[in-house]
Amino acid sequence: MPVTLTKGQKISLEKEAGTKLTQVVMGLGWDAKKTKGFLGFGGGSQTIDLDASCILFDEAGAQVDVVWFRQLRSKDGSITHTGDNLTGAGDGDDEQIIVDLTRVPATVKTLVFVVNSFTGQNFSQIENAFCRMVDQANNREIARYDLSGGGSHTAQVMVKVYRHSGEWKMHALGEPCSGRTFVELLPVIKPLL
Predict the structure, then answer these.
(1) Which tens digits make up the pLDDT trace of 97-123?
(2) Which residues pair with 11 in a beta bridge?
(3) Main-chain phi, psi angles of 15, to 5 degrees
(4) How many angstroms separate the CA atoms of 33 and 45, rounded?
């Protein structure tokens, strides 16, 4: 049974997975809220482009690399983005970031996962939105964070996955903020490292 994360919660990924983790997938899913037309006519759905990104930081908090829709693979090859979904169409994960924990360089201390609305709509216009962490070996969901619930923010610093005493841990940050790309979120991310 996956852990439903709440803001500020910390978990051991390996303890929750029940096994030594080698590869995890951060999945992002969402739908645009349907708009209501006049007297029930003319309603429809809008296009909302949410983006998942993973920023890699070293021990000192310096950015080492980033994986996002403009760079689908980390320079060392340990992290891969499966591609940019521009609409949220489809069921399940609309975007995925796959992390091979065994290949993440030892100089990388923290991975921060963020979600932002590239098209600029705020989270009150999104429904059925979630982020989840999955053990890729058995496709078992380890943890889930619900993004639905509205808000005037256009981005959220979701979670940080970090090394601690030889194992990977996860800290649910759930920090609402605004920005169209990870670059605009860096001033919010830095104090959370």
Answers:
(1) 999 999 999 999 999 999 998 988 888
(2) 170
(3) -65, -45
(4) 6
Structural domain boundaries, residue 139: 3-33+48-192
User: What is the bridge-based pairing of β-strands 3-4 and 140-146?
Assistant: parallel
Length of the chain (residues): 193
pTM for the full predicted model: 0.86
Tokens of 113: 């996962």
In 10 A of CB 162, how many CB atoms? 18
Residue 123 is assigned to a structural domain of this protein:
yes
Question: Which structure tokens are listed for 50?
Answer: 């949410």
CATH of the domain at 127: 2.60.60.30
Residue 8 lies in a domain: yes
Domain count, the chain: 1
22 conformational bin, left if phi > 0, alpha if psi -120 to 50, beta if neither: alpha
Cβ atoms within 10 Å, residue 2: 14
CB 101 within 8 A of CB 108: no
- Decide if pLDDT at 67 tops 90: yes
Cα 166 vs. chain centroid, distance in angstroms? Answer: 23
